[in-house]
Specification:
By secondary structure, this protein is of the alpha/beta class. It has helices at residues 94-105, 110-126, 146-157, 186-200, 223-236, 248-258, 262-268, 286-295, 303-308, 316-322, 342-352, 364-378, 412-418, 445-465; strands spanning 13-22, 30-39, 42-48, 58-63, 67-71, 73-75, 129-136, 160-167, 209-215, 240-244, 276-280, 298-301, 326-328, 396-400, 424-429, 432-436, 439-440.
């Protein structure tokens, strides 16, 4: 259901009571037993105890006993199209994995991307994601309107989207990794990015779609595309996204090609700033972290993908201590087959405890902040989402924690982060239901699975035919 305007124009309300609440506000305010009132598309109140008496136009009351309410999770990096190529190249590092899969990815078309979007986004939304950033950078000739297909498919699911319109113009013949037929021209990529911004970007409060300019990576994009991409983004007032410092091979590539490391290269092309966020950032030295902190450049931390591709352990505790904005990312499901962000809360905590800071690296509440408010910061939407506060958008999740999997963990935030993946009883995006009783509300999950399976098989056949 949606908490919206009634037929007489009054704002309808939804009330959740008797639940634990982690607001993830500036003070990490929590309530052992509290309430949240949603009015229209925003949070009207959140606090201890029962909801205020005498609320008008309450269309639904939910008893949240045994549940925890948190802000909706925010995924800051993904590649939706990779839903169709899960389970391949499972023993490869990043560069070998890319070389193995680029020829298949370069055969994608609009129906395939629509199916992959619903698979990828549906899986995340079932696990508490309410906003997702997708970095789509593969635009084969004759593939149709990929941006339009992705956004239409996402709209059916009901989550907020930041579509990072990616691009590649450095192919094998230019010393890059993608095959020659998989890239765009520099001019074509810039024109198409501008068209996507002009057609789809909505900067208003509560918008469901935002566009970012997103050349893929230093090893698949020319310096000219990086520079002009930054100029375009700032002229249009949109955010900027790319991959950065993911592997030691990438660092070696940058030194050989540009005579400097990735962070210095990004700065030389205009790619550091508080309107920029980068995926991975695994191999960052002290100088790199200081540059990100000085400029306000954000990081999408993807712990499972980093482990899957043997990239390494990002220095997240050091980034946070320096003041770098950090959010969490699933990354594409060809390098994180589970496709879920709520498992990244746990994996971020555990993997970072293998690093230099050991048990002091992250705790449950810091992990939850990475997946909520940190993500909102990285996507430039912290005034709207990422915490439960009056006036913010009603993007929230009601997690069921009274079942067997969490039955003996007293602290609800610890149960959510350290425990088994918690079922989602209710998830709202702007007051509208996207998940209820652990099922997607707006699409047929079985139909999504069947379509994705068929499109994955079609892609495999086309790729095999060459």
């Amino acid at each position: 259901m949606a908490a919206s305007a009634s037929t007489d124009g009054a704002i309808e309300r939804l009330v959740i009571e008797n639940c634990a609440i982690a607001t993830v506000d500036a003070h990490d305010t929590e309530y052992a037993t509290g309430h949240v009132v949603v009015a229209g598309n925003v949070i009207e109140s959140v606090g201890a105890g029962k909801a205020p008496e005498g609320l008008a136009h309450v269309v639904r009351r939910i008893d949240g006993t045994g549940h925890l309410v948190t802000p909706g999770l925010i995924n800051t990096h993904h590649h939706f199209y990779q839903w169709l190529t899960r389970g391949l190249a499972t023993d490869h590092n990043l560069f070998n994995w890319l070389v193995a899969l680029y020829p298949t990815w370069a055969r994608i078309d609009a129906p395939m991307l629509a199916a992959a979007t619903q698979g990828s986004l549906g899986m995340m939304v079932k696990g508490g994601v309410t906003t997702a950033a997708d970095h789509h950078y593969v635009f084969p000739r004759g593939s149709g309107d990929l941006v339009g297909a992705e956004l239409a498919a996402a709209a059916e699911i009901g989550a907020r989207i930041t579509l990072a319109r990616g691009s590649m113009d450095r192919s094998e013949k230019d010393g890059g990794l993608p095959p020659d037929f998989a890239v765009e021209t520099t001019e074509g990529a810039l024109l198409a990015t501008e068209e996507a911004i002009d057609t789809h970007h909505d900067a208003s409060f509560g918008s469901m779609v935002q566009i970012a300019a997103a050349p893929c990576s230093p090893f698949s994009v020319s310096t000219e595309l990086m520079r002009q991409g930054a100029e375009l983004a700032r002229r249009k007032g949109v955010r900027m996204h790319t991959h950065g410092s993911e592997t030691v091979e990438e660092e070696k590539f940058c030194h050989e090609l540009f005579g400097m490391g990735p962070t210095d290269y990004f700065e030389s092309t205009g790619w550091l700033g508080d309107d920029v966020w980068m995926a991975h950032c695994v191999h960052m030295n002290d100088s790199d972290i200081a540059a990100f902190a000085r400029t306000g450049t954000g990081v999408a931390h993807c712990p499972s993908s980093n482990a899957r591709l043997a990239a390494g352990i990002a220095r997240v505790p050091d980034m946070l201590a320096a003041g770098v904005p950090v959010g969490l990312g699933v990354d594409g499901t060809a390098s994180n087959e589970s496709g879920e962000l709520h498992t990244e809360l746990r994996n971020a905590l555990l993997i970072n405890r293998l690093g230099a800071h050991r048990e002091a690296a992250l705790n449950a509440r810091k992990a939850l902040r990475l997946g909520t408010y940190g993500g909102a910061q990285v996507l430039g939407r912290s005034a709207e989402i990422g915490s439960l506060e009056a006036g913010k958008l009603a993007d929230l999740v009601l997690w069921k924690l009274d079942g067997l999997g969490h039955s003996s963990i007293a602290d609800p935030v610890t149960a959510l982060v350290f425990g088994a993946a918690a079922p989602v009883t209710l998830s709202l995006v702007g007051g509208r239901t996207v998940v209820e009783d652990n099922h997607l509300s707006n699409v047929d999950e079985d139909a999504v699975a069947r379509t994705a399976r068929a499109e994955a098989q079609r892609l495999a056949r086309i790729a095999a035919e060459g």
